[in-house]
Amino acid sequence: MRLLYLQSGNLSLTEDYTEHVPPYAILSHTWGIDTEEVTFDDFRAGTYINKIGYKKIKFCGEQATRDGFQYIWVDTCCINKSNLTELSEAINSMFRWYQDAATCYVYLSDVSKRYNTNEIFSQSTWKSEFRHSKWFTRAWTLQELIAPKSVEFFSQEGARLGDKGSLESLLHEITGVSVEILRGKPLIELTVQERMLWAANRTAKRKEDEAYALLGIFGLHMPMIYGEGRENAFIRLEREIGERSRGANIHGNVHWMVPRAINSLFTGRSNILFRIQKALQSQSISVVQKQRRFVITGLGGQGKSEICLQIASLMKQQFRGVFWVDVSKPSTAQRDFIAAAKMLGYSVESIPEALQILATTHQSWLLILDNADDPEFDYQIYLSSGNHGAVLMTSRVAECKRYSPDAFEALGGLEEQDSKNLLLKAAEVSPELWSSYDNQAREIVRLLGSHTLALIQAGAYISQGHCQLQQYPEVYQRQRQRLLKYRPRQAKSRYGDVYATFEASADVLEQSRRESAKDALHLLEILSTLNSSVLPLQMFEEAWEGCKEISRASDEATSIDKFTQLHLSQLPNFMVLQGDKWDPFRFTEASSLLASLSLVTRHSLDNYLGLSMHPLTHAWAKDRQDSERQGVAWIAAGCVIGFSRSNTRMWRTHERSLLPHILSYLDIEVRKAFGLAPTVVVTPILLRCGRALLDMRQDSKVDQLIRDVFFELGQDPGEPSEALSPLYELQVRSLMNLGKNKEVMALLKKAVKIRETTLAEDHPDRLISQQGLAIAYQANGQVEEAIMLLEQVVKIHETTLAEDHPDRLISQQELAIAYRANGQVEEAVMLLERAVKIRETTLTETHPDRLVSQRALAVAYLANGQVEEAAALLEQVVKIEETALVETHPNRLISQHALAVAYKANGQVEEAVALLEQVVKIEETTLAETHPNRLISQHALAVAYKANGQVEEAVALLEQVVKIEETTLAETHPNRLISQHALAVAYKANGQVEEAVALLEQVVKIEETTLAETHPNRLASQHALAMAYKANGQVEEAMALLKQVVKIKRLKWPMSHPSRAVSENALSYFLQLL
Q1: Distance CA 1058, CA 905 (A)
Q2: Distance between CA 91 and CA 298 in Å, rounded?
Q3: Which residues contact 271 (CB under 8 A, 6 or more apart)?
Q4: Which long-range contacts (CB under 8 A, 24 or more apart) does 582-586 make?
Q5: Using an 8 Å Cβ cutoff, are 1053 and 820 in contact?
Q6: Which residue from 504, 311, 527, 304 is spatially nearest to 412, judged by alpha carbons?
């Protein structure tokens, strides 16, 4: 038992006493609300002083000190109730602990002996409260009254009311317990009925306790099965009483064949221990309907065998025989079955003979079948016929749950708190210090995925002085294999270390001759190059579909980004190209085999199937391969990724799920990647991965990848060549996303120049380059140059391509967008109306290109003041996309975003806010917090908030956006500057004028060095700064800046341009004020 030690008014928990227990006082009380009682964990963490329940503990300590005791025992905090083994032992020992106490203090929280109007309450008054105290109605307090030699009663103020001797008549009257028993007469001299009568009207919070509280009264021991209900608990109690009264002991354990003692580090798992006990508990001795079974499956090293040891210990007295059989190999199984039969008094030579002995043994027995880990072995042969006994099986093979479909557990990691406790226990950190190491322990727990054996190894590594707790994560990153192969010197597991545990599963596959086993190993290697998170299995099917194009093509690569027969040959055998339709049989067999060994976990999510791995299994799967095998797996995985990119819709749909896999796949030095296979194999893989990252807007990652590829190819990133055009095109798109317009311009000018000298003016590649340069011009504020170049491209397209050709329509669309930016809104509308009309006659209403053109037209309508037409068209687009696209599809979200902007322009601000809140909510669950689309939507929502009068919400949201962009984007990036601009405007609306001025001055200063003086963004920021100056009383600065803005707009923009009119009106207003 564990005691509380009193020293200088302070209390501390002792270690468990198994013998030589010092004299102690014991507390008897009634429990209040559970959250108000001081628990074992509260006491260990030092967070108990302010709890209501501490009052009675404090009283007990103070009274014990006055009586000369240094130790006390209190049930609320001296028992670790999360440890079922300890709880069961405590309940079975409770009567003896009260019996052995030097004295028992009964604290009556509902009895008062207090002063009132300067007079002490009369004795009859407190005796009335005493008679009706809830202490006499509780099940547990019956043995607490009878067992101790000395029992003293105290009021809620701590005033002594009397003891068991002085109050014996009153106690007899209240409880029905005879005076002779109160004076110490042996309980065995009374009948069962007499003792039962004492408890007839007593209750407990947990109904099973009404039976368990009588164990000491009858001198019995019985395992606790909370959840069995009051009726079942009393059935078991009465059965035990009956057997004891007849002198029989059929439940007493006689045969104990268990390989080792329970591990002192065992932590948590209370729920599964309860479920197993309940499943294996016999409900009746005379009638057994079926053999009781329970199967535990799960990843190696999670503690399946340790749970069995706990169950064997907890339920020992229920079974005459407990037999542990190691079924990892037929030879060990035969050895243990024969030993079990011999223990029962029979000499047998085979497993069937031993099973027959068990089948005909009517006395209770528990058979533990440990390590049933071979997916190709039928463990049915180890189950005895008949209905007798109970069987507990452990296995890594998920299908073994079929042996007990109604009672099984797929064991996962420990709960976080239990994981932290196990780690700190294994690290030999003193319990009173656990709370101070909580954050460090949590980091290690998450790093190791709450894997039981890994936590024990980590604790052992720390306890041996190899590193400190806070250093472990950093050491793990450098020395992962060493740490996961580290073996504790004591209390070792069956396999010794984490990696050896996983390797046992791989051995099963390597020893198998089945095709599916080889496929499973190849799949495991591929998965090891990706991330441990859920991988959509559709990627493999789409990769197979992408292979069909290559199989019909020639072996020669026509471009550095093209996949060829060489890539086809790198794919695993389970993706062999046969027939015209994907046959998933071999892939499914391979993944099912890995799942059956608990090496992967299968997921059936809303829209797709997936596979994931435990982080440590994933690390082991990579580390077990030599460098050559890792290289082969990396190339194979790259081919799967690359081929699957042919289905861009799948990649858009599963972007959030696929992103961690691409990032993990590219967690390799590009130099090393080029050493794994010929350049013609590696380059297309890296380019396709780069495009995937580009679509996911992992801008900095793409930029670094491109730089590394250029370096390894020995090419100058600033000097484009036709041979490497796909790489340069990727670089251009990346630079655009990074806002590096000057680099984009320089690169595209060179690319256009090369193509203008080598290609005909109507060559598609030349026109694509010119169109890209035009888009760059526009992004740089050189709208006129963009228009000039796009008009040239459109003119050629209109003479060489049919009017419904996609390339012609795209170039017209880009020209219309440039017209809109240049204030030529009417021309933009006219061009887009023509494009939309064509697409509405040639494409279905759900076709993405048709919807994109309609959306662009709606935005142009908005710019032209045709707000109602814009809203109507966008509502039509959104309605179609909401039925044709999933709610997370980027196109659908972009259209909803645009519709919200139209609503705001139309005065429907509340509708705008509602729609943007919906868009933002979805993007916050599907996109990373740094994704540009998510930030743009949050920006728009903030602007809508401002328009709706929710200025504080606008400021808070824009501050969040700006904070992210200031850490992810260059200070010259247009998106960052636009957000800072919007935040400054919100500051001004919120009365934070000085902050607005400071932020706008910063924006204007940057834009004056990066953008042309006619760029709309630069002019808009200068206009906003002028208005902020005015609000700040800096009228002269405001006038000067606004005059400059108006002058430029009058030179460059027509009178009808809305932005020009806004600035002119503001200047007129300023002049009137003067």
Answers
A1: 14
A2: 32
A3: none
A4: 582/541, 582/544, 582/545, 584/540, 584/541, 586/515, 586/516, 586/519
A5: no
A6: 304
797-805 long-range Cβ contacts below 8 angstroms, 24+ apart:
797/767, 799/762, 800/762, 803/838, 804/838, 804/839, 804/841, 804/842
**Burial class of residue 1074 (count of CB atoms within 10 Å of its CB; 0-12, 13-18, 19+):** exposed
The span from the CA of 84 to the CA of 536, in Å, is 40
Task: Give the pLDDT score at 118.
Answer: 41
The DSSP annotation for 329-397 comes to SHHHHHHHHHHHHHHTT---SSHHHHHHHHHT--S-EEEEEE----TTS-GGGGSPSSS-SEEEEEES-
Cβ(341)–Cβ(348) below 8 Å: yes
CA distance 885 to 18: 68
Residue numbers in the chain where pLDDT is lower than 50: 115-124, 246-251, 284-288, 490-492, 495
Strand duo 103-107 + 25-28: pairing: parallel
Q: Are 484 and 493 in contact (CB under 8 A)?
A: no
- Residues 6+ away with beta carbon under 8 Å from 603: 534, 609, 610, 611, 612
CB-based contacts of 586: which residues, under 8 Å, 6+ apart? 515, 516, 519, 573, 574, 576
Long-range pairs of 744-750 with CB within 8 A, sequence gap ≥ 24: 744/776, 744/779, 744/780, 745/773, 745/776, 745/777, 745/780, 746/718, 747/718, 747/720, 748/772, 748/773, 748/776, 749/773, 750/718, 750/719, 750/720
Within 10 angstroms of residue 601's Cβ, the number of other Cβ atoms is: 19
> From its phi and psi, is residue 51 left (phi > 0), alpha (psi between -120 and 50) or beta?
beta
Alpha-carbon distance of 869 to 1059, in angstroms, equals: 21
> Do 1072 and 1053 contact (CB within 8 A), yes or no?
no
Q: Residue 948: its pLDDT value, please? A: 94
Structure tokens at 101: 């106490």
Residue count (the chain): 1074
Alpha carbon distance, N-terminus to C-terminus of the chain: 90
pLDDT digits (tens, 9 = 90+) for 947-960: 999 999 999 999 99
Give the pLDDT of residue 337.
94
Q: What would the pLDDT profile of 332-355 be if each residue is shown by its tens digit? A: 999 999 999 998 888 888 999 999
> What's the angle, vertex CA 945, arms to CA 944 and CA 950, rounded to 5?
155
203 φ/ψ angles, rounded to the nearest 5 degrees: -130, 170
Q: Which of 461, 394, 401 is nearest to 426 (CA)?
A: 461
* Dist CA 940 CA 954 (whole Å): 10
Tell me the C-alpha distance between 922 and 915, whole Å. Answer: 11
Which residues make Cβ contacts (< 8 Å) with residue 944, sequence separation at least 6?
A: 900, 904, 909, 912, 913, 916
How far, CA to CA in Å, does 883 sit from each of 718, 878, 924? Answer: 45, 9, 22
Q: Are 479 and 445 in contact (CB under 8 A)?
A: no
Using CB atoms within 10 Å of the CB of residue 580, give its burial: 0 to 12 exposed, 13 to 18 middle, 19+ buried: exposed
Pairing of strands 408-411, 10-13: unpaired
Spatial distance between the Cα atoms of 872 and 878, rounded to a whole number of angstroms: 10
User: What residues contact residue 1018 under an 8 Å CB cut-off, 6+ apart?
Assistant: 781, 1004, 1007, 1008, 1011, 1012
Alpha helices per DSSP H over 382-491: 416-426, 438-447, 452-463, 472-478, 480-484
How many Å apart are CA 935 and CA 930, to the nearest integer? 7
CA nearest to 486, candidates 468, 462, 450:
462
CB contact at 8 A, 410 and 298: yes
Sign of CA dihedral 1045, 1047, 1051, 1053: positive
Contact 200, 218 (CB under 8 A): no
Ranges of beta strands (E only) in 524-639 are 535-536, 601-604, 609-612
- Rounded CA gap, 734 and 979, in Å? 21
Residue with tokens 């994560």: 473
